Automatic annotation (TrEMBL):
Protein known as: Basal-body rod modification protein FlgD
Every FlgD Tudor-like domain range: 94-229
FlgD/Vpr Ig-like domain residues: 111-186
Function: Required for flagellar hook formation. May act as a scaffolding protein.
Compositional bias ranges of the Low complexity kind: 8-17, 25-34
Family: Belongs to the FlgD family.
Region (Disordered): 1-34
Organism: Thiomicrorhabdus marina
Length: 233
């Protein structure tokens, strides 16, 4: 690469690469002007326009006020958008922290599969939309039926049933995922299934781009935050 001698202010010479000098002087980012206009710039433009206007055809004062108002509104809108964006980012960060704190918690959701901890009772909520007779609760696992609980007649509404964790033979069952089936007969003698609200532990939490929070439970089920009825320890 050829070097070229560039005279300095004191008369001395400095050896400088011509190509490097050309690249530095032609860097558009370094020499690019700031194209953003603020209210002060707008005022200067209006002042210049007033100073150079045709005396025989002066600027309309009403138009001047209108331009000023529009500029103020534009600047206020820009600042408001920046504030809203900052608030949205802050809310998303807060939501992420709150969602992460739910990992390991027990939640109550509509469903049939629930998490059971050995030695502790598992509360099961039945949600009846009508009175039923001979209501039966069947608890099962992958190997089949574990326990059958008879509740006789129940009125409409919610009813909480505690399963003590024992099977049909009175043996304590281990921790794990169990399934729940509840049914009864209505006034016409027809068998009706009963909706159930069960508890499960939160294993993971995921947050979508639209800030929707989804929980993955110990049962493997994925539910949204809107489906959570209750949060426990």
């Amino acid at each position: 690469m050829a070097d070229y001698t560039v005279p300095t202010a004191t008369g001395a010479t400095t050896s400088t690469s011509y190509i490097e000098q050309s690249q530095t002087s032609s860097n558009p980012a370094a020499s690019a002007p700031n194209n953003a206009l603020d209210q002060a710039d707008f005022l200067r433009l209006l002042t210049t326009q007033l100073q150079n206007q045709d005396p025989s055809d002066p600027m309309d004062p009403t138009q001047f006020v209108t331009d000023m108002t529009q500029m103020s509104q534009l600047e206020a809108t820009t600042k408001m958008n920046e504030s809203i964006l900052a608030m949205t980012t802050s809310f998303q960060n807060m939501q992420t922290m709150q969602a992460a704190s739910m990992i390991g918690k027990n939640v109550q959701v509509n469903g049939n599969d629930f998490s059971h901890t050995a030695g502790e009772p598992s509360p099961l909520t039945l949600n009846l939309d009508q009175p039923l007779q001979d209501v039966t609760v069947v608890i099962s696992d992958d190997d089949g039926m574990v326990q059958e609980i008879f509740l006789d007649d129940l009125s409409s509404g919610e009813e909480i049933v505690d399963w003590d964790g024992l099977d049909q033979d009175g043996n304590q069952r281990g921790s794990g995922v169990y399934s729940l089936t509840v049914y009864g007969t209505d006034e016409e003698g027809e068998v009706q299934m009963v909706d159930t609200i069960v508890g499960s532990r939160v294993n993971t939490v995921s947050i979508a781009d639209d800030s929707t929070v989804t929980l993955t439970l110990a049962t493997g089920e994925r539910v949204s935050m809107d489906e959570v009825r209750e949060i426990g320890g």
